[in-house]
Every structure is written in C-alpha cells, then in structure tokens.
Hints:
By secondary structure, the protein is of the alpha+beta class. The chain is 35% helix and 20% strand. The chain contains 12 helices and 16 strands. The protein has helices at residues 6-15, 42-46, 108-121, 165-177, 203-223, 268-288, 294-297, 342-358, 376-381, 391-399, 402-428, 434-442, and strands at residues 18-26, 32-38, 50-53, 67-72, 78-79, 88-97, 125-138, 182-187, 193-198, 201-202, 226-229, 243-251, 254-255, 310-311, 319-320, 331-333. The strands form 2 sheets. Strands 7, 8, 9, 10, 11, 12, 13, 14, 15 and 16 form a 10-stranded mixed beta sheet that branches. Strands 1, 2, 3, 4, 5 and 6 form a 6-stranded mixed beta sheet that branches. Strand 8 (182-187) and strand 9 form a beta hairpin. The protein starts with 5 loop residues before the first helix and ends with a helix.
Amino acid sequence: MGSYTKKDIMRLVAEEDVAFIRLQFTDIFGQLKNVAITASQVEKALNNQIMIDGSSIEGFTRIHESDQYLYPDPASFAILPWAAGAGRTARLMCDVYNPDGTPFVGDPRGVLKRALKRAAELGYTFNVGPECEFFLFETDEKGRPTTRTGDEAGYFDLGPVDHGELVRRDICLALEQMGFEIEASHHEVAAGQHEIDFKYADALTAADNIMTFRMTVKTLAQNHGLHATFMPKPVFGINGSGMHTNMSLFRDGRNVFFDPEGERGLSGECYSFIAGLLAHARGMTAVTNPLVNSYKRLVPGYEAPCYLAWSASNRSALIRIPAARGQSTRVELRNPDPACNPYLALALCLTAGLDGIERGLTPPAEITENIFAMDAAARLANGIDNLPGSLEEAVYALNQDALMASALGEHVFPRYLEGKLREWDEYRTQVTDWETARYMIRY
Ligand code: GLU
Ligand code: MG
C-alpha cells in the first residue's frame, strides 16, 4: 500500500481522472461495505465529514444513536483497476467514529487497532502473511453460482486443464496495480480451487489487504463469467479453502521469533506465543472459522487441522513452523478460513499470542507424527484436544474465554455471539440447501 497524504490524494484524484471514491469499512461479520462519493466530495471525506447511518449496518449501533462518521485512512488509497477508462473509481479504507470524535467501539478495524496498541506498548510490531484459498465456479444461465468447475486440474497444475489460469492472471495484475506484492499464485488441490499469496505486512495492512483481495477476486471472476467463493467447504468430499495465517513479532525491525541459539532456531518468545495460541485456540475459533460451513472443512483427511497441537513441519497440526529462519521466522496458524472477519481474527490471534508471552507459557511437546493417522486413544495419551466441531460449540468456547471476549470488546462480543447463535439456529431448522444459498454468494 502507498503512504499517501491528504494532499497526494487530492492531486491523484485530479490527475488520474478519478470520478468516484468508494469509502469502505467492514461490518462485524466481515462483509465489506462502502458508500461512493463523487470527486467533488473528496476534500470533505478527507476531513472526516462523511456520515453514515450505523443502525443499518449489521452489528453496529441502535436506531437512536445511528450517526457515525467515516475517517478515511490515506495510506489505503487505491484506484480500482477494473473500473478503468474515463471517470475512474478509487477507494479508501475508513475507520468508523462517533459524532463526538471518539472511535466507534464496534468497528472491527478499531478492534484490531486496540490489540495492536497493546502490542506496541510491549514494543512489538505484528506482521501477518495470509494464504487465501478460493474456488472458481461456473454460473448457470441466470448467472447464479453452481458448484461446477469445468476444471480437472490439481495442485500446481498448468493450463489448458486449469481453466482458472487466465482469471488468476488478471487478479494478480489487478492486485499489483493496487500496490500488492504477489509472491505466488497456483492451482490448489481440489478441482476449481486456487491460491494467491501476497507479501506479509503489518497486521492492519494485512487485514485491509484481505478485504481488498476478496473484493478483487470476486469482481474479476465475475468479469470472466465465473463465480468466486471463499466459502470454506463448498463441496463435500474434497479439500476446503483455508487461510493459513503466518505471524511474527518484530522489535526495532528485528524478528523476535528468531534466535540462532534457541532450540530449532526459535526464541522463548516464539514458544510462548505458540503456547498462547494453543491456550486460546478453542476460544477464538468462532471468529477464525465463522460459519456453520467452516466446521465441515475442519475434519480429518483434507489438509485442514482439527487437533490442538503444534509441529515444526507436520501439516496435520494446528500450528506449524515453516522452515525459514532469520527475518522470515514465523508461526503458521492453519485453522482460519477466508470467510472470517480478518480484523477480528488477527486481533484475537495477537491477543492470544501476547498472553502466552506475558504469562511466560511453554507449549506442550511437539507432535511429529501424522495426527490424522493416530487413533483416539493415542491422541488422548498424547494430550491432544480437539478444535470445536461445530459453530455452536465454538460460540460456547468463545463465551468461556474471558480474554478473547475482552479483546473483541463489550460492543462486538455480545453482538457477534448473538449473530452466530442465530445463524446456527437458522441452520438447524432449515430443511433446504440453506448453507449454499446463504454462503456461496456472501462469502
Ligand atoms: N486447503 C487446505 C485447507 O483447507 C490447505 C492446503 C494447503 O496446505 O495449502 O486448509
Ligand atoms: Mg494452500
């Protein structure tokens, strides 16, 4: 992302023939929202004077306290490359504020900022590199998504079997034009499944990037007559889509997870961070894996984790330590999925890891065997617990984790819980294909 000032933006809007600016923010369930303004209003917007009606946004405010203001983050300015030509469109990510000038506690971006402030007080910067997977499906004659892929390819395959190659190429080019550094893009294991990895960034930028990424993938797929979905498990019996989350803490520009003298080249802080993640893994799953459908991915046999364990290499564990050391030393959490609200998910990951550091926790022994191949008795003997098996179980676990609840804050926590339990109840009482109808388009 750029490091634009208000003045730069005023100039760019004029020079680049920008006619519309979309002011974007995210609701508590991770849906990107926006209000478009014309270029004539850009100065007003940059002076934080654009108002929205928060009572109409899921999980925001009640009707009698509904006025809120959008404070654009100038660093997030980007011209949307697919809306090129005369009268271009740009976007700005925004923070949501109350009329009295205080940050609105229900703004997910604000929740992450609060967690980052805590890290900064301890001297840490939190860096995150996500790996978002998604499916490209064909649409029917009415333009509605199907679960047909028209694609027989598998992991790392090339065209012509990989029908998604051209779309992926367009997505990568568009993201680069918006300032992303794309590190890799490839076909994933399942037919119609893809992954595009972009360079790690500080957590706030990473979360903004995930929102931009989802919007870009969906838009460009649509331009190719396809439907992109981040629904975690759209098709039974094949791999689902994860969002492996690579995390590291830096202090004074140095990766504190790396210690050449430490066991496996990892520092005590790194081990404590892992222990903190494990201690709160069950409590944060309702946020990292937010849908009824998320729990259909978290089953043995499809490269998705379901057991609470860590390992330096074993991909069946919840937490893995990729081989890179030095500045690239990182902890990979494997359960998050790309339907999550990235601001809330990263806030909880950070809070959990920092709790491990502050309490000086040490993780249980590394599990090097394939956990999927262990029987239940062996798991019990090794003290390996499960991730929650359903959205309902995950919500209960969140409700019991006071630290995760306080990281979400007293506004978001009850509304999130209530929304997810409602979703669970709706699912339990539907006889039709509720999940596909509800999730395929929204996520
Ligand atoms: N798609 C797998 C998942 O659900 C991950 C595959 C991989 O290792 O990239 O998490
Ligand atoms: Mg992958």
